[in-house]
Amino acid sequence: KLQFLYFIGREMRSTRVLGHSAPWMKGKAVKRKGEMDQRDGAKVLLTGVMHGARAPGLSLVNTGRMLDGVSVKEVNCGAGHAVLVMENGVVATFGDNRHGQCGGEQHKDVYIATHTKTLKVYDALQGRDVKATAGARHTFIYTPGTRDIYSCGENNLCQQGVPGYQDVFSAPNELGVQWTSDIPHTEGGIVKLSSSTTHTLMLMESGSVYVFGCANDGQLGTGNIVAHSAPFKLKFFEAKGLRVTEFCAGASCSLFLTECQQVFGCGKLDEGRLGLPWTKQKPVTLLPKKVPLPLFPAHFSSGLAHTTCVAADGTWFGFGGSQKLGLSLPMCKDISDIRHSYNTDAYDEPHAPRLFQEDLPVVSLSSGNYHTAGLTEDGAVVGTGWNSDKQLAGNEESFQDALTLLHHNPDVAAVAAGGTFTVIVINATPATPDTWSDLPIVTIV
Fold first, then answer.
1. CB within 8 A of 413, min separation 6: which ones?
2. Among positive and negative, which fits the CA dihedral 174, 126, 364, 326?
3. Rounded distance between C-alpha atoms, residue 208 and residue 115, angstroms
4. For 108-166, how does the pLDDT look when each residue is reduced to its tens digit (9 = 90+)?
5. Where are the alpha helices (DSSP H) in 207-355?
6. CB-based contacts of 27: which residues, under 8 Å, 6+ apart?
7. DSSP element (H, E) containing 6
8. Whole-prediction pTM value?
9. Contact at 8 Å (CB) between 293 and 353?
10. Is-contact 408 365, C-beta < 8 A?
């Protein structure tokens, strides 16, 4: 009897989409409509699988009354959690919390859009220009231009910049004070962070780049595989007189954009994830190496083994991955045919850039494990790549080799791709077209 009850409890717990009910209720699914459909404020849509919560098509996340009358300015996703940043500086989290990445009680499975203002340590940030960065299983929350920064979640590789290799920080950890001796005052405040499973990149107001975390594959760009448990200044670009303006921490690799429109990459090379050739004899590059791209990306984002870029004129191109893994690279046309000369002999190599869309500018771009989602100026959410868990909404194909439309609403404020899911946020007003009332409701409990 106990085994049977355990099985029933486990099945009920894993079925978190109301309207897409448990297997034994097939054909009896009931769509739940509530007041939340009609109220003004941010609407959060989910598609895909988010730590057991399965949304086999766009669904409305049940956030209760938490987002009533509130506007969201950005969303960031990790492997199984999401972080929402409100216009008033309040932060909300939901999803996988087994490593404390949602900023609450450790190992409590999931949270329902928990306001971090309830965590006393964040009170100082409320009402300020707050930003967030989600690593795979950890989260950073900070105020740009200052050193007010907090983190929570996994730290087994010191990816939070906290010495000691402590496994998790379930309560938010104040980092600015701890980094006083690591970062000189002359470097100014923090401008931007990017974090992956193993490491973190941080840009300061002075233009300096600091790195910390694992370096087993050279992803820190320091020229060796020595890990750094606290922020360490990356001197490569300063020595060459280059200023980094943007970067992206990928899976065991890093990509950097410079002010003079050059692209550099370091770390793991396999699957062509850095746009550089690789061999078994040279599987990594320990120092940043120039990536010969034919177009300079205005936006770029990396998944597990691929990178997708969008140029300022709306040209989408990418490199890395393989069709076997179903990454977001259709490998259908050599970009050199359109623009600049490129080594066409490398056409069959995964590191060679491939063009797969023109004339579609985006305001943001985000990658999950094997898919990419972008947001256009008119509120169209488009995606490409692997769709095995319906992370590209209700499309039947398991792999989308061209851009597909996930949702369209002029008031879409933010889009982010997580591991095997996509989150879309709409800031609804009385004038906003209702594109969500017919959607099933996802309740994460």
1. 42, 71, 72, 73, 74, 425, 426, 427
2. positive
3. 33
4. 544 444 444 333 445 556 667 889 999 999 999 999 999 989 898 999 999 999 987 67
5. 236-239
6. none
7. helix 2-14
8. 0.86
9. yes
10. no
